[in-house]
Write a sequence for this structure.
């Protein structure tokens, strides 16, 4: 078996490598080496550097895939968010608020108190009491609708934010240097 003279690509120590061997270990520094042979050149390459570079590139590719996943999540949330929002009197979309439902309930309670006082004082007609009762029922319906829309919005937003944080952590992990 013929030996070829080469140098370690890591420390420069001389190596004697059998001509049919593709991998070797430097006796001086212990580096794992890949032996390259061309018609005019024979040299070694440190495998650990190649592996680290490959791992880094794989991490970057994974991070890019996760960034695309994040963009898709953001796009899907924006579409879902539009469907969960309410239109105000000017036609502008707004986030449903739990406070709005409570405000409607508070207003209905205040009106009921005023009507109750008027009934007790004898100043309210049956028609007025009926109209206030109908208005109260409608107000309760609107308040319930507001509460349901707000609850659905905040549940969806919480789920979206949790998924987003998970993807961001996965991107950071993919970019972390390999040990």
């Amino acid at each position: 078996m013929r030996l070829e003279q080469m140098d370690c690509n890591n420390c420069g120590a001389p190596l004697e490598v059998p001509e049919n061997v593709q991998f070797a270990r430097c006796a001086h520094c212990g580096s794992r080496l890949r032996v390259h042979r061309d018609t005019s050149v024979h040299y070694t390459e440190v495998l650990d550097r190649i592996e680290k570079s490959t791992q880094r590139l794989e991490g970057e590719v994974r991070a890019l895939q996760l960034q695309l996943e994040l963009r898709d999540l953001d796009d899907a949330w924006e579409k879902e968010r539009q469907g969960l929002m309410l239109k105000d009197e000017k036609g502008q979309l707004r986030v449903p608020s739990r406070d709005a439902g409570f405000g409607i309930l508070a207003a209905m309670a205040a009106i009921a108190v005023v009507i109750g006082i008027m009934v007790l004082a004898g100043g309210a007609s049956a028609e007025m009491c009926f109209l206030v009762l109908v208005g109260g029922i409608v107000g309760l319906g609107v308040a319930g609708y507001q509460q349901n829309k707000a609850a659905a919005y905040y549940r969806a937003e919480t789920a979206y934010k949790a998924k987003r944080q998970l993807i961001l952590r996965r991107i950071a992990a993919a970019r972390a240097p390999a040990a």
